[in-house]
Specification:
Blueprint (H helix, E strand, L loop, with lengths): L1 E7 L2 E7 L4 E4 L3 H4 L6 H10 L7 H5 L4 E7 L7 H15 L4 E7 L8 H8 L1 H6 L1 E4 L8 E6 L5 E5 H4 L3 E7 L2 E2 L3 E2 L13 H7 L2 H4 L13 H12 L2 E9 L5 E7 L1 H16 E2 L6 E5 L13 H10 L5 E5 L9 H7 L4 H8 L12 H10 L4 E4 L4 H6 L3 E3 L2 H12 L5 E4 L6 E2 L3
Parallel strand pairs: 3-19, 4-5, 4-9, 5-6, 9-12, 14-20, 15-16, 15-19, 16-17, 17-18
Antiparallel strand pairs: 1-2, 7-8, 10-11, 12-13
Helix pairs in contact: 2-4, 12-15, 14-15
Length: 424
């Protein structure tokens, strides 16, 4: 009997499976990489050798209003390490710079002070000016025209009206933007509701290029790059993380060049060919990405690549904060997968409902695959989402075997967010 620990909330759950039924345990080499040198030194080295730009200190010279965009409470960016180093570099170039840290929430709720202290540390929260993007407050945004797709571009004025704009984030495979990091700090991170919705429209999500690991011809990515260039992102710091959320790589400098270097690293260490199974067990990597069901399609899309035509997917996602947004909760429970997709397909891009992209992706997956969910959600809510509730990974596996047979071959992907299960 094999025991496999599955990330779940702030801890893990054990899955027990017979070796003869385990088709594959899919873990990337990236998950086990160690910081070398230390996390802090990796950051310092990246800042000391920026790709395609002068140093951050040089860029800060003569720049009075500086905006530093960082991620919100749903992302594992190691800001306790990165922010103090970046702030020191800015002030080395301009000791009198007026710095604003903008938390890029996209359409997520505003990050609380308690979460900020956990993410940034008390010293940053007590001493620095921190503001949260609120996509639903129209007074925060300026209109900068339209993007290549025809979407409107309304961006936070703290981003648009500064002298130096830099962004920090981390790079991992993303289920419709190709990869996270880089340009995503601006769109969706620092944009108004209208802009985010159009960028994530039914048509955009349905594009054959809006997939994990795909950037070329990806309409979502292309709009994001144009948005970030239009507000003149002059510098980024992006990192890659292992399974323990430790920094194992860092890249700084030009918006596209530094991001491309990080993407190449992540692709090298996280890409693997799909391994087919009758049952695929996965997670959203634990906290913070598994705190609600809205975030969970990231890993489910990875499982989809390994589940063949009709494999059963077992998803372990704590959902400690519940469903996520109210629009997502309503849409994912409105009917069968076919009814959900039919409804969403009629919505024009400019009338996109917030969060509809996740029900759209779920509808696509649930049309082909039955899914068993291990979570803290009540059983009836799970059933209304067209999923089967289970109290533990072992119970979920037993249910899946009832559907696929006692001898079903099982693929386990402990962290479905970090894996790119695509043909190499």
């Amino acid at each position: 009997m094999r025991t496999i620990a599955l990330p779940y909330g702030h801890t893990s759950l054990d899955l027990h499976i017979e070796e003869e039924h385990l088709e594959a345990l899919v873990e990337t080499e990236m998950a086990e990489l160690e910081p070398d040198p230390s996390e802090e030194e990796l950051i310092r080295q990246a800042l000391a050798h920026p790709i395609g730009t002068p140093s951050l200190a040089e860029l800060a010279q003569g720049k009075d209003r500086v905006t530093l965009v960082t991620s919100d409470h749903t992302r594992a960016v190691p800001s306790r390490i990165t922010l103090p180093i970046e702030l020191a570099e800015i002030r080395r170039g301009n000791p009198d710079a007026q710095i604003t840290i903008l938390i890029a929430t996209g359409l997520h709720r505003v990050t609380t002070e308690e979460e900020q202290r956990r993410m940034f540390g008390d010293a940053i929260v007590d001493r620095e000016r921190i503001v949260c993007n609120d996509a639903f407050d129209p007074t925060q945004f300026v209109d900068l025209g339209t993007l290549p797709s025809g979407a409107s571009f309304k961006v936070n004025r703290v981003v648009a009206e500064c002298d130096l704009l830099l962004c920090e984030g981390f790079i991992e495979p993303h289920f419709f933007a190709g990869f996270s990091g880089g340009r995503k700090s601006i769109l969706p991170g620092a944009c108004a509701e209208e802009t985010v919705k159009e960028n994530h429209s039914y048509k955009a999500i349905a594009s054959p290029y809006a997939l994990t690991g795909v950037l070329e011809h990806n309409p979502i990515h292309e709009d994001m790059v144009v948005a970030a260039r239009r507000v003149n992102v002059q510098f980024i710091l992006n990192v890659a993380l292992n399974a323990r959320k430790q920094v194992i790589g860092a890249w700084a400098g030009d918006l596209e060049q530094a991001h491309a270097a990080g993407v190449a690293f992540v692709r090298q260490w996280s890409q693997c060919p799909p391994v087919r199974g009758d049952i695929v067990v996965t997670t959203n990597g634990g906290y913070p990405l598994d705190q609600n069901l809205y975030q969970s399609p990231k890993a489910v899309a990875t499982a989809e690549a390994c589940a063949g035509e009709d494999g059963v997917i077992v998803m372990c996602c704590s959902c400690l904060e519940g469903m996520g947004g109210s629009h997502f909760a309503e849409l994912i429970q409105m009917g069968t997968p076919e009814e959900i997709d039919a409804y969403l397909s009629t919505i024009p891009a400019k009338e996109t409902i917030p969060e509809q992209w996740c029900p759209q992706i779920y509808a696509r997956i649930l049309h082909k695959h039955r899914m068993v969910l291990v979570s803290e959600l009540d059983a009836e809510t799970v059933r209304r989402c067209n999923m089967i509730p289970a109290a533990s990974p072992d119970e979920a596996l037993a249910i899946a075997r009832q559907l696929k047979g006692a001898d079903a071959r099982v693929v386990v992907i402990p962290d479905g967010v970090s894996v790119m299960a695509v043909a190499q």
